[in-house]
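Figure-free illustration: sequence to structure, shown twice.
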Amino acid sequence: MSLKADDVTKQPRSSRWIALAILMLPVLLVTVDNTVVGFALPKIAEALQPSASQQLWMIDAYSLVLAGLLISMGSLGDRKGHRKLLLIGSLGFCVVSAMTAYTDSAAQLITGRACMGIFGAMLMPSTLALIRSLFEDREERRFAVAIWATTLTVGSALGPLIGGVLLEFFSWGSIFLLAVPVLVPLLVLGPLLLPESEPDGSGPMDVISTMQSMVALGALVYSIKHIASVGPDVSALVAFSVALVFGWVFVRRQLRLPTPLMDLSLFRNKMFSGSVTINLMSLAFLISFVFFSTQFLQIALRMSPLSASLALIPGQVMAIVVGLVIVPVAQRVSVIVLIPILLAFTAAAFLLVAGIGSSLTILVMAFALLNIGVGAIATVSNDVILSAVPSTKAGAASAISETAYEVGVVLGTTVLGGVVTATYRSTLQLPDFLTPLQTHLASETLAGAHSISATLTGSQGDEVMYNATRAFEGGISLMAWVTFSLALLAIFIARRTLKVPKAAPV
């Protein structure tokens, strides 16, 4: 026997919180998956020998597909029921993850990641929408959303730790097998504990809008990656033009449709649009940090995966603590004051790296500062997003929120990670004793330089790694300055948009 939405109020209070715990399993998995692959990248690069572009696609194929489908899946959940979609997505994610664990080429891994993104898109909108169904009381729901938002940040923060433990004792494929033990409890207990949301029957799925959004986002990401890997050329210009055209067509279509795929009217609410923007930017900051720091710790500083992951534990602890402690603070301090203060912590993290360098001590301190800001921002902004819309728009609002989250992940690796990659390629000076093939491989990625140095004699290998590390550090420094500037911009956006109406609760 399954629960209906009307039965929620009859459930014991403890049952609702157990149901929430079950809901957090897919949230944790999907967000862990965003950073654990980045942490495993050196091991994957050693095994599969991907190009620089393929390395970025290994991370972004998942988030790109996820971001492109989240709005559609949120709408589908509103129509057909969020619990049903959640269970289908969990089963598919388990199967595809297990298959991806045994791929033997970069192309296969990228394809597997893209397929995981399809099923991952079924999970995320359903979790936040079901929280709205489970908790009708405002204060209970605020705390439940805080747990959900904290899980988002904690999942991203725990990715390196989980990856470090798995990679220390198992092959890189183990990071994908993680999905099976995490999602099986949801598949077993979900039908018993989770209520089914009421379908609204608001018409068929808009496949055309879905394709337009995916083409626009995919073309934009491709153009940025191409510029980072090869440089600006005709291909990058064409891809960027395609992104602009399809993005414009998508927006015009949404404004004309009686039941749009993305309800753009929600963005007329400054609190909603400002919170979504801050959410996107803060996640981009976090993912970009994980992207460069995990490579630097494992390759440049030659730390084992486990040692590198343990070095980031202070930041992971801060993400958990701050994400929960911020709830009572948010009840007393206006968001227009609170979020700029939190963004100041993220700005300080990158200013530390830009101004002093990327030593182990600095990276540990910066990651802790970053997680103080991002961990709390996720909690506060998602509560604002969910509270700013009527209950009938919960699925659409949560889908937009999570789309911003995944777009932030994509932009973190594509734009900010691309700054590191482009700087590395343009400033790297390699010795003349390398063959053309060795020069090409070493100039692609830091992992490539490490692989080439391992085939050389001691002094020659040390010279290659010294030059590669310096070029990579130069990319980190430039990216840190760029991100610091973006954090200041985010503070300005927060101050202009997060003004709570006098009649609304803070």
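We now fold a second protein in the same way, so the two outputs can be compared directly.
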Amino acid sequence: MTQTAAAATAEPRRIAPQLHGAERLRHGIRRATAMEAAGWRSIGRALLGRPRVPHGATGFSYDRPVRTILIIFLVLSAIEIPVIDLLVHGIAWLRWPLLALGVWGVLTMLGMLLSHLTRPHSVGPDGIRVRHGGEVDIDLPWEMIASVQRRRHSLSGAPQLSLTGAGDEQVLNQVIQDHSEIEIALERPTLLPLPQGDVTVAAVRISVDDPAAFLDAVRTHIP
């Protein structure tokens, strides 16, 4: 591989199916609907106090660097509702649609925040579950995992899910604020399901708020 080609494969690539026209539109609608439904489920799980962590497993958050930002946007969205109501209070045909839109926006932001809180990564007897919000849920049984190490990777400008490498060396990156903390090497290139489409990767890199505790939990299941 030439130096230019190697640099290109090291750059994070957005995961996106090659779709066009109506098929691309349908895919976008399905994803938007799935994200909306996941947000509502996350609100329900938060109200019931039931985070999605497998029995006997330990959950590990990954959203701390962006949590404050999401909370700020949530508060601002909530403040907008009475402000808009005050401005258009006397215009009924405009007031009610804007209020409905404002409430929907607040619930959407709340669902986004809670999807991170109620769906953490987890380490348990059956393996590692990799999460990202309400959409991503990757099951990695222990027999599939070759090693788990703390390796900080910086991926400037990378989307929250991206690919690096090529062929049998392709890596899935789940990043928060342009970096990941843990590298999970797989025994062999493995097909993993993602909302954007299935991908075959040799390793998964994830963000974890407490990498040391995550590795301690891993060591109770594999040396």
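Summary for the second example: The chain is about 45% helix and 25% strand.
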